[in-house]
Amino acid sequence: MDAVEVTGVVVRYGDTTAVDGVSLSVPRGQVLGLLGANGAGKTSLLQVLGGFRRPDAGTARVLGLDPFGDHDELMPRIGVMLQSGGVYPWVRAGEILRLFASFAAHPLELDPLIDRLGLRPKLGTAYKRLSGGEQQRLALALAVVGRPELVFLDEPTAGMDPAARHATWELISELRADGVAVVLTTHLLDEAERLSDSVVIVNKGRVVATGTPAELTAVAGIERLTIRAEPDLPLARLREKLPDGVELTECAPGEYSVRGRLATDTVAVVLSWYAAEGAHVTGVNSERRTLEDVYLALTKAAA
After folding, report:
1. In which domain of life is the source organism classified (predicted)?
2. What is this structure's pTM?
């Protein structure tokens, strides 16, 4: 049984449809990156999965339960990290962390978690007095201290410095290794590409793409091919063989750049031409589109 199973979920606010027939699943022990612009419907979908509202249509199962109807049974088994808020502003960091640990039957050991997330100097500080990054680290600790089977992380590294961001990435990887399912929303596309086993991109409430980061970037193809050979080769004949939208330049003596959406057959044409010319090729490098490139292209096309 998958940790999360969503089929045709719809969420409406009056005449506005925030989530429009979304279907997705999250296997146990995997990280799902849920990507979309502000207003794409991510928060509304997370509200359904967290049991804070019923969907207007469709079904959602979380750890085999109805997240709304079985809310009280489900809550001890999940962890939720909000992007901001959710904590009484004047409670001290150490107090709220110990309180959350007391709710769990088998909480994580507090001292290693505190040290890992760099919270020890701030245990006596009121939540309101913490910096944005410190509040994020505390929220992450609160989400995982109870050893959940499933964690919802909403922009987990927003406001964090690079060291804290990498510590968070390591912790998410360890959660996955321990069989915990993670639903991750982030605007940092390199973070999603690094951490996610699968990605769902939503735009205006609808799923516009799904797959592993490697699958999504592979479909986008190679964006640039750089070839090193002797200078001043007769490029006009090669340009005639290239499809529209592909640019060929000698950007420096002996360094040739082929730019555009380069399908496999286009790459083959380019390399075959160099071979036919008897060119002495000393280097070939390719650059694939990143997940960020794919995301921007898909959301722009669906706008």
Report:
1. Bacteria
2. 0.80
